[in-house]
Design brief:
- The structure is a homodimer of 238-residue chains.
- Chain A has 238 residues and is of the alpha+beta class.
- The first copy, chain A, has helices at 3-6, 56-68, 134-151, 165-176, 182-191, and strands at residues 11-23, 26-34, 43-44, 47-49, 77-84, 94-103, 116-123, 196-203, 214-218.
- In chain A, strand 1 and strand 2 (26-34) form a beta hairpin.
- Chain A binds a DNA duplex (30 and 30 nucleotides) through helix 5.
DNA sequence: ATGACTAATAGTCACTACGACTATAAAGGG
DNA sequence: CCCTTTATAGTCGTAGTGACTATTAGTCAT
């Protein structure tokens, strides 16, 4: 392969982040208002160019911090989604974008950052037409996260370090858009080894309206065996 | 975002393909012997530069045809794996590579192609140290395919248009490295709607040593509900 | 307090899925 | 013809799951 022959090609590499969280019982995405052309004034996913000395993962974390001013990225779950490389996806030049799905518990307040006029959490359904192909990236992220809830412990990434089973169930219900039976959900989660583990001596007392719930932490397992399948929308046999 | 500021950055975008097939009851990967530096003479995954006017998917198909001389790419299943972007993954320049997992039934004979001195099917275990980070890409592809066999109909991508349940079972056994109970596997596959459908009036007669097996085609389903979980290596509860 | 309301947790029951089997059928090879 | 091989049929006990009912332990309004 002749490298130098291609070294002058006008390829730019960017990252785009579909950052999801759960607020007020609804799925929210983190969007920024673009300050520059193209699509100035439109809403878009946070993202930006990968620098010459960093990986896409590093660039994703940096851009997220820069554009949205989020300070606490400790609980951030970051995961490659896929790479979008259609030649015409950016009207100005050839841009290949590595997209990420990111999950965050307890959404912190974003501040508009360097390249973005403003950053805001927007309910997933109301994340209107976005710039570039970001609508599709966001939809792909939602689909991927929904699928991974079935067979991985990903749901805990939406939760703070200590959480109740009710909160965990809300994650599933919110992302899937379904209602789950509480006792059955509880039985299933507790029967899956390594999914969650009880916090030694605590129960959330004040705040909630009902009986205080026990607190749990994410367990050591990464995958769910057996999986927690989402209910069949219609005549699916399982 | 100031596009022009980055337009000169020496980013090259390539594709790499982990092409898998099953031959003689073993998992094989398609490798090429590199003709140029770096890593001249080493074995590597097929791949190459993305052209300015094509997507990564298009480039993947083109490179596969060019480098390995495979003519029949009709049954090829191509799927993005992930993008590898560590700054030092190529010793000569900054290369971001979009990796693909590809599945092919009935491995055709490859011919060395344009950039590759030679192309060959190599048993997965004997795919020694490869150039760049291709060992990792190949391992990631294997892991991904193994996982997707559990909850998607991907296994049929390893099979010709018409196949027996024995062949389908061999796909699972080969990729997972396990042995499955034949009657149970059969029951499970036939009980999953849309996974396979019987070919109207046929049964493979000659060739095999035992009772002739019925022929099946891939069904319309894309995902498996419920999933076909691989047996627990040890004390996993399911 | 006291009773309504809410949410967490415990438990039941029937049905289905699945792992581990045994048995039979239909080919080929000595 | 028997023996081997592979496909297919069927059985049985158990674990997992959906749809429930019941109890417990808090808050809130009166």
């Amino acid at each position: 392969m002749d490298y130098d022959k291609y070294a002058h090609e006008p390829f730019a590499v960017t990252v785009d982040l579909a950052v999801l969280t759960i607020a007020e019982g609804a799925l929210h995405a983190l969007l920024v208002e673009r300050g520059q052309e193209p699509y100035a004034g439109h809403w878009a996913l946070p993202g930006g160019f990968v620098h010459p000395d960093e990986s896409a993962e590093t660039a994703a974390r940096r851009e997220l911090a820069e554009e949205t001013g989020l300070s606490d990225l400790s609980g951030l779950h970051l995961e490659q989604l896929r790479t979008y490389s259609e030649p015409d996806r950016d009207p100005r030049m050839r841009v290949v974008s590595v997209a990420f799905a990111a999950l965050l518990p307890d959404p912190p307040e974003p501040h508009g950052g360097s390249d973005a006029a403003e950053a805001r959490w927007v309910p997933y359904d109301k994340a209107g037409p976005l710039a570039f192909d970001h609508d599709r990236i966001l939809a792909d992220a939602h689909e991927r996260v929904g699928a991974k809830l079935e067979y991985t412990c990903l749901a805990t990434a939406f939760c703070p370090p200590e959480f109740t089973l009710g909160e965990l169930q809300q994650v599933y219900e919110t992302v899937w858009g379904t209602v789950l039976d509480r006792p059955n959900f509880r039985r299933k989660v507790l029967a899956t080894p390594g999914f969650v583990e009880a916090v030694p001596g605590a129960a959330r007392l004040t705040g909630g309206r009902g009986k205080p719930a026990a607190l749990y932490r994410a367990g050591p397992a990464a995958t769910l065996h057996p999986p927690l399948l989402r209910p069949s929308p219609e005549g699916r046999p399982a």
